[in-house]
What we know:
Shape: globular
Number of helices: 17
Radius of gyration: 23 Å
Helix content: 55-70%
Strand content: under 5%
Distance between the termini: 32 Å
Strand order of the largest sheet: 1-2
Mean pLDDT: 89
Low-confidence stretches: none
Number of domains: 1
Largest sheet: 2 strands, antiparallel
Order of helices and strands: HHHHHHEEHHHHHHHEEHHHH
Structural class: mainly alpha
Amino acid sequence: MTAWRELLAFLVVLTVLTPLLGGYMAAVFEDATSPLRRFAAPLERLVYRACGIDERVEMNWREYLAAAAIFSGVSALALMLILMIQHVLPLNPQRFANLAPLLALNVAISFITTTNWQAYAGESTLGYLSQMLLGWQNFVAAAVGLAVAIAAIRGFTRSNQTTLGNFWVDLTRSLLYVLLPLSIIGALILVSQGTPQNFTPYTTATTLEGASQAITGGPMASQAIIEQLGVNGGGFVAANAASPNQNPTPLTDWLQCLAMVLIGAGLTNTFGRLVGNVREGWMLYAVMAALFVAGFAAIGAAEHAGNPLVHHLGIAGPNLEGKEQRFGDTSAALSVAAATGTSSGAANVAYDSLMPMSQLIALLNMQIGEVIFGGVGSGLYGMIILAILTVFIAGLMVGRTPEYLGKKIGEREITLVVIASLLPAATMLIPTALALIPGLSATGNGGPHGFSEILYAFTSVSANNGSAMGGLNVQTNVYNALTALVMLLGRFGTMVVILALAGELVSKARNTAPASGTIDTTTPLFGGLLAATAVVVTALTFVPADALGPIAEHLLLRTGAMF
Length: 563
């Protein structure tokens, strides 16, 4: 019952905050008369003047995409250079060495795509300046996703037009009005609970056994909060949210889980408000919440049931291997469900030590397209793509042209949706197959678990999640190159599709009076169809591969074949 009470409190708080944050973001991006916009207008105009931005000039979808890609590319190059020369830069009291070029490239791509895939331990690899610049990239990468989501919404709210807004304006407002204020509040809470925020060298302590231990300090709170709010996930330290410094109390653990899903949930309400029907947003929220609860229940049940191998030794109880004992299996289940249901990848538990069925749910949460609240912006537009696919299937059932939010869904739109649906299969399964070629890359464990580690790695980077099963050695040239390519395809492949889709829809007239036979997209029936579409498409695509990993390992455990 404790698990369900914690989940209930989590959902109640999230449901209360969703319309508050959703209404706030709707005003930020589309209501020029809001008091907030008027109050902060001088600061916003100052940014535009300093950067040479004309806020009155709008962009079509190709120009919007080009601006996002160029901004991300320049950010990656700058970050890569900094990591390669960090030894001579200030704020590096531990005097850490420069990163090798291929690793620096991998890290840079990882952070511009919100993946934060880390084949290194931050506390023993990066100086404070490098850590802070990675933290800044957490802000701007999340802001890019939020800006693209707003542009996608405009594809439905505008009629007979060609433009989707101005990328630089949307990026600026995402930073000034959403990410920075929330991060300041969150960082202050973390500091109040004991998370470090300083620039002093690491403290050397003497343990009870007489050994020396380095206690990590640094500007940790400011990075920890944006890694969660921006669903980036990369920790200041290798232990991530299991570290007693980064995550010192049960309150900070619960708040960090809430921060992972907060903006993704709020965007559903923003979507509903901007398209003129709040019920549309609540329907998307309900589907996301239902999938989230199902994942939490499955992970919680698997971890609480425990490991049969341990039970075989006469030791009863839940699976506590690889878990932070301050939080236990319930909080671990909430963290895994939130981290893999979004593109966060943060962890207060060792994923390699999870039960096979928990690993399966974590895989499915990412393979479903990171639409269970999802990344900042990317979760919403991923759900929009699924909704269009669902109305297309429903249209086939009743023999009518599909329509979503008053926009007719034609051949071009469906083609783009199909491409988006097939992209994860290509970016997750093909690299997994390549990594299995003998001699091409190092493997971790053998058998189904070793396969799970490889499949999980490429599923995670494709979904821009960044979590990993620690038994796999990914600090190789092959993995650095392959994961970098997959991260780019996972991030910008879907971004191309959603902006092209928005570009097609914005040019169409919006029918405010739905035709007879058009499915009502605000009903529980449509919600059920949407959830079923997400589950069935994912199962048909990925379960055959999953069967070779966590499903096979689960069956071996339960049949006693591993005893």
